[in-house]
Amino acid sequence: MMKKRTRAEELIFTRNKILTTARDLFMEKGYRSVSTRDIAAKCQMTQPALYHHFKDKETLYVEVVRQLTIEIQADMIPIEKADTSPQIQLKAMLTMLIENHPTNILLMIHDILNELSPENQFLMFKLWQTTYLEPFNRVFKTISDKGMLRDGVTSETAARYCLSTISPIFATDSPFRQGSMSDRLDELIDFMMFGICKKEV
Questions:
Q1: Which residues contact 69 (CB under 8 A, 6 or more apart)?
Q2: Are 15 and 53 in contact (CB under 8 A)?
């Protein structure tokens, strides 16, 4: 016979259930298209019961994103510590984001910029910097230190560009999708590192 959970354990269980359900819905549909009523219904609970754990939808969304970024940061650590070339490191980081991240990063950023209060926008921006921008910035800083970046291109500019280019790869149903994800990442990194057009000598 299963031991009955204590009240404290029940509160933790319910909170985690709300977070998991909210994460699935937010990351699938975006912030605006999901209501606390939808989340409560999926959790088989009432809205007032949900509000006992999270005072409103925005508070819940912020906690969902905060937990997600903690997971992504943990996944980044072994990749950054690996003794590999910058190209291999970039591919590993991008692959991890695409495989483990539940939504298009740019969709999440759009939600943060357009739906949240200024205070939470700032909080989310700092999380985005720490979780996404800074790891790629460090890789491109290594590339820059080797003299491999073009004049006028900073490591941060390169990192921002890199993150912006992976958005279409999240769209698994894109009619323009060709080849495996691995092949597409190889192509993207090759174009990013060495360009598309030949330079005149």
A1: 127, 128, 130, 131
A2: yes
Angle, vertex CA 153, rays to CA 147 and CA 157, nearest 5: 120
Q: Please enumerate in sequence order all residues whose Cβ is within 8 A of that of 25, keeping only pairs 6 or more positions apart, or say none.
A: 34, 38, 39, 42
Burial class (CB in 10 A: 0-12, 13-18, 19+), 18: buried
193 Cα distance to chain centroid:
23
How far apart, in Å, do the first and last CA atoms of the chain sit? 78
Full pLDDT tens readout for the chain, 201 residues: 567 778 888 899 999 999 999 999 998 888 999 999 999 999 999 999 999 999 999 999 999 999 989 999 999 999 999 999 988 999 999 999 888 776 666 677 778 888 899 999 999 889 989 999 999 999 999 999 999 998 999 999 999 998 888 766 665 555 545 668 788 888 888 888 888 887 654
